[in-house]
């Protein structure tokens, strides 16, 4: 078996009651597909962090069963388990007295990798998260910006090529601009590494932007809906989900709905400089281009080819489908 290939995570009737009586998770069953990014989203205190920390056994469940691929999570040694799981938290928790290089190399060192291999892997990962190793590897955490520290946290979590990455509000301590940039970079990174990722946030916009699938939870870890972002926004399962995703869910839906390739209106004799949008863009991109121009339509382009045009009515019709 390939120890680093992405695997699914399965929860079956999982429950957590803390000492003192709080039932953080009443009974949760959920399957998170291999190689996908699943977001757990829900109001404060609904049990998101508890669920995440049961997966790497920082918290022991009170009942139910969990699997990482074919391995039952509670049946394997927790230390060995955690070596297969990267974990990124808010404010990262980098070791302050260690350089970036040593922070990133922590787990490979624990695993007894040869020095040369650790150095190579560290440089590769810093590159991957957008930090030039020559410039940053010998710095200490306090010599970095908040966003750079988060990147080091992600590099450290990926160091030993874990099968799963657990991320608990990893980007919430940085300002919105840096946060947007980290989200974009992170999406690019996931295209490359294709890990099974569980990502906790209370921010619906972040969930919609990053998630292949979103699990909306209410108090007691109750699963209200589990669906891809477009489905969640277009068809919220109940009023809790509808209210949680917000009254502007139609606007959010624009950003996660692709421009249709079929059924576009034929090109009129386009004046030069007519607004255009790439075919792999979203309806939001199309609407933005429409609002910039005054033609009342926008050309959908695939490279140099014009596939047809979209009007505001078409955008509306696609959303209503
Ligand atoms: N160690 C603990 N002992 C007792 N109760 C706890 C403990 N940790 C969490 N809880 C309680 O369990 C419930 C779920 O907490 P949890 O941290 O999982 O929620 P969350 O959805 O991650 O919240 P937030 O978005 O605010 O981080 C809360 O009611 C919380 O007070």
From TrEMBL:
InterPro entries named among the record's database cross-references: AAA+_ATPase (IPR003593), ABC_transporter-like_ATP-bd (IPR003439), ABC_transporter-like_CS (IPR017871), P-loop_NTPase (IPR027417)
Protein name: ABC-type quaternary amine transporter
EC identifiers of the protein: 7.6.2.9
The keyword Transport is annotated on this UniProt entry: yes
Nucleus is among the record's keywords: no
Annotated family: Belongs to the ABC transporter superfamily.
Species annotation: Catellatospora citrea
Domain (ABC transporter): residue spans on this chain: 9-245
SMART domains according to UniProt: AAA (SM00382)
Taxonomic superkingdom: Bacteria
Any one GO MF annotation of this record: ATP hydrolysis activity
Top-level class of the enzyme under EC nomenclature: translocase
PROSITE patterns: ABC_TRANSPORTER_1, ABC_TRANSPORTER_2
Keywords carried by this UniProt record: ATP-binding, Nucleotide-binding, Transport
One Pfam family in the UniProt entry: ABC_tran
